[in-house]
Amino acid sequence: MFQEEKNRFVLKEEGKDVAEITWQMKGLRHMVVDHTFVDSSQRGKGLAEKLVLAVIEKAKKEDLKIIPTCSYVVSYFDKHKEYNDLIAR
């Protein structure tokens, strides 16, 4: 569904980015997740949550920790304590 590009997952429709989540690497093991965007035409479809879950899966697979700075991602982790082990302390 989402394509992974350099430091982001993106969903494109007709060549246009309609949803994305971005991160910057801090060192070798920390992802600073700093931005989530869903185009207004795609809102209400759960895409933002799916983007966060894609980042979570990447972090698990690559043994990375997440530093959430995007307000949506911070809120997501606050509501889903089952992923607290992935947050960098």
From TrEMBL:
Keyword vocabulary terms for this entry: Transferase
InterPro entries: Acyl_CoA_acyltransferase, Gcn5-rel_NAT, GNAT_dom, GNAT_YJDJ
Coiled coil: none
Gene3D superfamilies registered for this protein in UniProt: 3.40.630.30
UniProt-listed CDD domains: NAT_SF (cd04301)
Signal sequence extent: none
Database matches in PANTHER family: PROTEIN NATD1 (PTHR31435)
Protein name as it appears in the record: GNAT family N-acetyltransferase
Gene source species: Vagococcus carniphilus
